[in-house]
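Dear colleagues,

I hope this message finds you well. In preparation for our joint manuscript, I am sending the Dipeptide epimerase (Alkalimonas collagenimarina) sequence together with its predicted structure, so that both groups work from identical material. I would be grateful if you could confirm receipt.
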Amino acid sequence: MKITDIRLGMVKVPLKTPFKTALRTVNEIEDVIVMIETDTGHIGYGEAPATAVITGDIHGSIIEAIRTVIKPKLIGLDISDLNHVTRTIQNCIMKNYSAKAAVEIAVYDLFAQLYKAPLYKMLGGGVPKLTTDLTISVDYIDKMVADSLDAVDRGFETLKVKVGKDIGVDIERVKAIYAAVEGRALIRLDANQGWTAKEAVYALHKLEDAGVRLELVEQPVKALDIDGLKYVTDRVHTPVMADETTFSPREVIDLIKMRAADIINIKLMKTGGISNAIKIADICSFYDMQCMIGCMLETSVSVSAAVHLAVAKSDVITKVDLDGPSLCAFDPVVGSVNFDGADISINDAPGLGIQSIKGLVMLP
Ligand SMILES: C[C@H](N)C(=O)N[C@@H](CCC(=O)O)C(=O)O
Ligand SMILES: [Mg+2]
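The corresponding structure tokens are as follows:
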């Protein structure tokens, strides 16, 4: 199965409600879709969101990186040489993680199609079911409480509550949500870099002293403030998770050696795709550290790949934040991963099982 062409398109899906974090507010998903064509007629699908505030990627950079650098290196390569293909993708350009991720996802889709197996089986097997959390956007306290109760009523048992704005209001936000859903849902926080280390310790001590039990706090401080992350990890009982701080396997090793966080959030758009995500999961497994599988604002094209990976690495990926499709007003993908509220399941279609993408606009 040889790569003959790589075509690009755009998919646009409105969100059910605006997605608001300490870093940005977004109303719709607009992502680059990658379609890798082969001499056997098989097509592999991938997707890249432009999350400039986290990965530095924008639509233009994703499209140009794939068109002018990655694609010329891949034409003619044989999908059965998976390691050679993924190394070529990783080594042909620095950074550009989302572009690399989209192409790698399509390559893995084809690799599993080649052997007529669902991707998770090619990655090691597992039970093809997951349960995801749902993100509660940062907002007025009453709105966040109402959104949290609505999520619980819809069957979500874990809420990822966005904070990282005004520290005093953040404490009140979390207390109010905790009181409203106590006993019905687990709460994880994501400050998206919005606090200083001292503010984070102050807020978490206030919440711990008030009896608010949190599953974890994600990325309390700036991405590059590793000393700050360790400062928080050393001082609070609530487990601390690194998100924006760690992209590569190297960064994960450094973080683990410093004991700067308790948990790692693996996202394909930070690792540059599946090959490095596997390395990070294996490093964490070796060091006995838990991981979360996360996503950016992605549709079920690329989130499906994350689902397959998480199923295969469920020994170490014990937490799931794959709510991209749940945030979408509709699912544009006809495919084999079924996103039904908190419940995610995979059937036995080969690869990612993507048959078509509704509303896909191909780029010239
Ligand atoms: C969508 C997911 N639950 C999430 O929160 N992902 C990111 C932010 C993604 C974005 O801004 O596009 C995270 O910080 O974990
Ligand atoms: Mg995060």
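For the figure legend, we might mention the following. The radius of gyration is 20 Å. Residues 21, 23-24, 51, 135, 160, 190, 192, 243, 294-297, 321, 323-324 surround LRSVPJYC (ligand 1) (CB under 6 Å).

With kind regards,
E.M.
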